[in-house]
What we know:
CATH topology of the largest domain: Helicase, Ruva Protein, domain 3
Structural class: mainly alpha
CATH class of the largest domain: Mainly Alpha
Strand content: under 5%
Number of domains: 2
CATH architecture of the largest domain: Orthogonal Bundle
Number of helices: 7
Helix content: over 70%
Largest sheet: none
Amino acid sequence: xxxxxxxxxxxxxxxxxxxxxxxxxxxxxxxxxxxxxxxxxxxxxxxxxxxxxxxxxxxxxxxxxxxxxxxxxxxxxxxxxxxxxxxxxxxxxxxxxxxxxxxxxxxxxxxxxxxxxxxxxxxxxxxxxxxxxxxxxxxxxxxxxxxxxxxxxxxxxxxxxxxxxxxxxx
Length: 170
């Protein structure tokens, strides 16, 4: 009798560990037949939506466009992703349907060279201006052209200043 209770207990423990594996097996079967899980579908949908301009909101991607038409296109992308199409194939299908003007094209790297040269030139001009003004200030200090505050004070101002110093020192 003890053997049967122990035997039932083993079955219970085995079932407790095997049930989650069996529940996951339909999802594994879907992925192995070219279909994706919900997380993967969502990720692909978001990525493709960020890489295609919206036909309904000029200048915005599908991910940024709030229109109902853009929502429908995102649902189309989701359906294609569930069917197991690759990201590039989904983009091509959507662009074929709505038009080539909605394809996002990376600007060539040469476009950045002009901007970098302007920034480098501006940096050189700023450094030259700093050097020029620092040199000018050093020359003025060496020449002794600086006028001190004591030279510009009247005798009344000096007397008042001495009185304040005397009060402060006490």
